[in-house]
Amino acid sequence: MSGGARKAGVFMPEKRKKVVVVDDEEDIVGAVEETLSGNYSVYSAQNGQEAIKLVENTGPDLIIMDILMPVMDGLEACRRIKRDKLTKMIPVLFLTVKNQLEDTQKAFEAGADSYMIKPFSPQKLMEKVEEMLMKSELRKDMA
Fold it and tell me: Rounded to whole angstroms, how far apart are CA atoms 35 and 33?
């Protein structure tokens, strides 16, 4: 049954997955929100410092984050999120213009789970989000 499940004869609506989008470019945040908002609850922040607070307050299922941002960049925010025992299991997808091998390596060293280059295809982003959330669910089930 799509859209929910039955438990003891009562319909239980599925809880929408929460995605935090972190980017200082409003047009990118808007494009990601437009792509995902039909299927997910989307929250946004403009820098790494705001992201950490938002992640603590919302408990998202996935974080999509840029690297280049003011106040605190995405790499530092990712390191802090992955060091915290309450947030370390939240998958992080970097969505960035930084496309050199060195950039990718730094992202994975900071704790990223995946990496995509801007500009992005909305369909590819949706596929990546679904894949990452599915893997995250499998890890939770195995724990």
Answer: 5
What the chain holds in terms of domains, given with CATH numbers, is 16-142 (3.40.50.2300)
CA distance 37 to 15: 14
Q: Give me the residues paired with residue 116 across strands.
A: 95
Which amino acid does the sequence have at 1? M
Tell me if 81 sits within 8 A of 111, measured CB to CB: yes
Decide: 20 and 54 in contact? Cβ < 8 Å.
yes
DSSP state at residue 64: E
Q: What string of pLDDT tens digits covers the 143 residues of the chain?
A: 344 444 454 554 568 999 999 999 999 999 999 999 999 999 999 999 999 999 999 999 999 999 999 999 999 999 999 999 999 999 999 999 999 999 999 999 999 999 999 999 999 999 999 999 999 988 777 76
- pTM of the predicted model over 0.85: yes
